Structure formats: structure tokens, C-alpha cells
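Deviation from plan, reported transparently: uridine 5'-triphosphate complex.
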Amino acid sequence: MKPQKVTKAVFPVAGLGTRFLPATKSVPKEIMTLVDRPLIQYAIDEARAAGITEFIFVTSRGKSALEDYFDRAPELESELNRKGKTELLKVLEDTNMDSGAIAYVRQNRPLGLGHAVWCARRLIGDEPFAVLLPDDVIAAEQSCLAQMVEAYQETGGNMVAAMEVPPEKASSYGMLDIAEDRGSIVRAKGMVEKPKAEDAPSNLAVIGRYILDPKVLHNLHETKLGTGGEIQLTDAIAEEAGWGGTGVYGYRFRGMRYDCGSKAGFLQATVAFGMSRPDLRDEFTAYLNDMMAQLKAAE
Ligand code: UTP
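Because the crystal trials were delayed, the predicted structure below was used instead.
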């Protein structure tokens, strides 16, 4: 039997974003700008390209800028209309969400990613759902989630996006314990959250894209506090890898992932996305070349 279609996606955006203080004192991390679009827009576009039609945001205090971002901006629209700026109007329209397509739930304490997803349980109901962490930005020809949705048609169960990392980076990720490697899809027999390099079961790290069975929500309900005192999503997914579980699969996506939750990753993404934009490429690349030449000359 084919797995059920995935139409709902959860965007956990209730974190404190402490790595970007002081900016995140008043600006939500997810609204920070990569070239000219907030991080959240990249995640929304990726989800839309994968066929998602219902968008669930898990927010917290101080995130109202996010809600405003997806609302209409009538003054701006009429001004652009009056001036005949049709291209900009189109850019603006792409950020609007249909009435009722977007829902917000609050996480009233930052108890971790697992808890944030659990907060959306009533809106998710009893069907498979996607989770996208907007601070993982993925540049790919085919949207990463769309690739996963295709692969999920084969596997069902639970699917996580996976990428290879060097051993010294294992302690920053959930790492897959592999039972069977089929190339782009691997079947996992477990997952370990942030292991030391020597304890990592493989070099395949989980990044912020998931397709999950509703059973994971049940596991989250039962789960004890995991690593770091937060309720870990990894633990709740890992429970499904065992005997009698719905199955856990890693998917080696095609594309480049940028960790925009860290300053270095955000800067790398800014350079990469800046260079890939036709309207900026020439000027920006010339500037970077010039900078590199100056650095070399100063060595
Ligand atoms: P991170 O751990 O990267 O985000 O969580 P953070 O806690 O906001 O950032 P730092 O580490 O303090 O800088 C990954 C995603 O999970 C969400 C975050 O908003 C981010 O999108 N999250 C995290 C929640 O929604 N709730 C939480 O309790 C924790």
C-alpha cells in the first residue's frame, strides 16, 4: 500500500536564537535575511515545491514579525500598483499565504525541538507530516523536501535528510546507525544525538528535514528528557527504528546545506546565494576576487 500523501508541514520557530544575539533580542532568527529574503521564505518555498498545502508554525513570544511577514501588506501593494512596479508586486505576492493555509501554535517554554513539534500535535492529527527547520537552508535543483517525498513513496515510515560529516563534527548532529545502505536511501536501526567522534555509529548526520509518522508524536509524549535537558526529536524518531516500529530511513539528498543557525554558516550561505543570483553574480564575484587578491598580496 502506498503511503499517505504528505500535505502538512511543521516549522518550529520558537527557539531563542542565542547564537545570533544581540540581533535576535528583537528580530526572530527565522526572519533574518539571506540576500533579500528571510530564512523562513526559503523553507516555505521548498515545502510548496514538495506539494505541502498546510503550514504549521510553532512560535513563541517575540515572533510576531513572522506572522506579519506572511500577511498581506495593502499599503505597500497599492503604492507599488500606483507606480506600476509589477515585478516587485509579484515578489510581494509570492510571500502571501492563502487564507487558512497557515496556522500558528505557541510553545510557551523553549523545551527543545521535540517539544516544539509535539506542540503542533492537534493540528497534525493522524497523518504523516513534514518538519522543516528554517535555519537549515538547502540549495538544490529539486527541492530537498520534494526529493524526500518521492523517496518516501517507496519507504513509508519515517524519513530524515542525511549528509556525510567528518568524525569531529558528529557531536553537533543526530547520527544514524545504519542497518542497510541502499545508496540514496539507508535504513537505520537507530539514531544517536550528538555523540562523541569515537561513539558515532556512522558518518551520516541528520539535518533539518523530516517526514514523520504520527506515531512519533505519541513517542514524544512519552519521551523522557534527552541529551541537554531538552525533549529530543531524535529519541522519539529512533524509537521507530526498533522492532515493531514504523521504520526510519535516511535520505542522502542532492544539494548543498547551509547551517544558517551559526554565524559561519550564515556567512557562507550569503556568499553562495549572492554568487548564484543572476542580478548580483558579476558585481559580487568581482568584489570577492578583488578581496582574495588583496589578501594574497598581504600574505
Ligand atoms: P536551534 O537549537 O538551532 O535553535 O533549533 P535555537 O535554540 O533557536 O538557537 P540557538 O542555539 O539558541 O542559537 C533548531 C530549530 O528548532 C526551533 C528553533 O526555532 C529552530 O528553528 N526550536 C528550538 C523551537 O521551536 N523550540 C525550541 O525549544 C528549540
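The longest strand covers residues 185-193. We consider this an acceptable substitute for the interim report.
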